[in-house]
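Progress note, project year one: complex with nicotinamide-adenine-dinucleotide.
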Amino acid sequence: MKVLITGGCGYIGSHTAVRLLESGEEVVIIDNLINSKIDVLDKIKEITGKNITFYQEDLCNLEELRKIFKKEKFDAVIHFAGLKAVGESVEIPLRYYQNNLVSTMNILSCMQEFNVLKLVFSSSATVYGSPKSLPILEDFPLSTTNPYGTTKLMIEQILTDVYKANNKLDITILRYFNPIGAHKSGLLGEDPNGIPNNLMPYIVKVATKQLPVLNIFGSDYDTIDGTGVRDYIHVMDLAEGHILALKNKKKGLKIYNLGTGKGTSVLELVNMFSKINNVKVNYKIVDRRPGDIASCYASSLKANKELGFTCKYTLEDMCKDSYNFVKKNSNL
Ligand code: NAD
Ligand code: UD1
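Model obtained:
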């Protein structure tokens, strides 16, 4: 199968490219490198020993995208590309709507023109807003609190409408919970620019003394220890979910949560990280971060039943691999 991976130089896309190449598929990446680096391609090659065709292109450029589709004749598309910083999306919403929606619509129109039927789309647990109960099931009500989340919700709606108009399409929407961890080699991982917004990249920067202290946002939530609870999933397990989605025999429009089904609090994660890596993580408790919810974790029963999805990696692995990647890749 020849698979187009949009955003394949990014965090989740690069790990998925590795798994796809390892399972014998042909991979083509389109990425404009707005949030990633070109040397990721060499690292994917180093891990897999296989070549990738790469186009440095903005998916918002329909004419260039058409040329690529015409030339490559894809069997399937995994659409990761998008802007993903929640805070930034509140400050510059138009940029988010423009990038995330136009790129997706361009992909869909090229798929239509060149008769590509299979699509896997990266959605997010953010579409559940503040869930009414836990664990979160796929049929829970949807809502969002920021423009980033709204782009995901709007794209899910677009995919639903496009599928209604052409039910030969085979579309899988994957709602990721909180991906962390890195490839075992330490060659690929999450490498955000500037000061991280998300918890694990922040913990790692504190552990490696690139930042002085982790601010824990609130200790008065109704959770095991008062800190926020999330469903952290190893990025390699997440990558595997995409392989299973591509191979799924069930056709149509399908939606799956990809999480472990297990909630972990901020303090539990920090303590696990310190213990497994034998490193101190300075932290202090500060006010809640506006817009945060107390707890969020998935029911992954549907993905397990229909895709055979299970998580192989533990929280220990996630902590170890995240640290290993940053130690190997920062000049400390
Ligand atoms: P990432 O930023 O590391 O990767 C996205 C890639 O897309 C980057 O390499 C970027 O350069 C590229 N890109 C963005 N806009 C583009 C455009 N117009 N044309 C071409 N390339 C473009 O992000 P990630 O963490 O790998 O996330 C992948 C997808 O999963 C995103 O859609 C994100 O919203 C979604 N998601 C991520 C998380 C998470 O915590 N990482 C959680 C839920 C959902
Ligand atoms: C974030 C995004 C969400 C996205 C999800 C998965 C925000 C507001 N939301 O959610 O849209 O789908 O990632 O990528 O960014 N925390 C701290 N200190 C920190 C950072 C985080 O205490 O410096 C806490 C948070 O309060 C939360 C937990 O750690 O309880 C996880 O935070 P984060 O990694 O930002 O993920 P989410 O809030 O789940």
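The radius of gyration is 19 Å.
The mean pLDDT is 97.
No further modelling is planned for this target in the current period.
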